């Protein structure tokens, strides 16, 4: 339940933020939120992270569909709160951007992702991108800590001997 709740809440936050960004930033100059550290700058991204692969929007969309299925399949075995939160955030990020790719112009599987958060010397991003990064960070933390999906601790060959 925690996995699903995190995913649903964060997808909703991402989509509301994107609607508000389009409504209030389209045709407007950048807006400072925290001086030059964080600004609001509306852009549409047909590619993947860092606007890479802009000619492969359909392929990126198909990969996002596959990634969604993999995360959903993996989530069936979750028994750890941290894993549930990490996978929920990962799913929210993948699907938050997937919604844009399916429903925004120029059309299904080719839609451009709404990005609007800008840091100095960093590509413009959105809430879904934050979810992906934090989710992957939590998953890596669990792996490094030796915590399995079910919450049990991984055993080494020395421990089992």
Automatic annotation (TrEMBL):
Pathway in which this enzyme or protein is active = Protein modification; lipoprotein biosynthesis (signal peptide cleavage)
EC code(s) of this entry: 3.4.23.36
Instruction: Name its cellular compartments.
Output: Cell membrane
Q: Which residues cross the membrane?
A: 56-75, 82-103, 123-144
Broadest EC class? hydrolase
Could you tell me the membrane topology recorded for this protein? Multi-pass membrane protein
Q: Which family does it belong to?
A: Belongs to the peptidase A8 family.
General function of this protein = This protein specifically catalyzes the removal of signal peptides from prolipoproteins.
Q: Which domain of life is it from?
A: Bacteria
Q: What is this protein called?
A: Lipoprotein signal peptidase
Catalytically driven reaction(s)? Release of signal peptides from bacterial membrane prolipoproteins. Hydrolyzes -Xaa-Yaa-Zaa-|-(S,diacylglyceryl)Cys-, in which Xaa is hydrophobic (preferably Leu), and Yaa (Ala or Ser) and Zaa (Gly or Ala) have small, neutral side chains
Which sites are catalytic? Answer: 115, 129
User: By its UniProt entry, which InterPro entries does this protein fall under?
Assistant: Peptidase_A8
Q: Does the keyword Aminoacyl-tRNA synthetase apply?
A: no
Q: Keyword Mitochondrion: yes or no?
A: no
Q: Which UniProt keywords are given for this protein, alphabetically ordered?
A: Aspartyl protease, Cell membrane, Hydrolase, Membrane, Protease, Transmembrane, Transmembrane helix
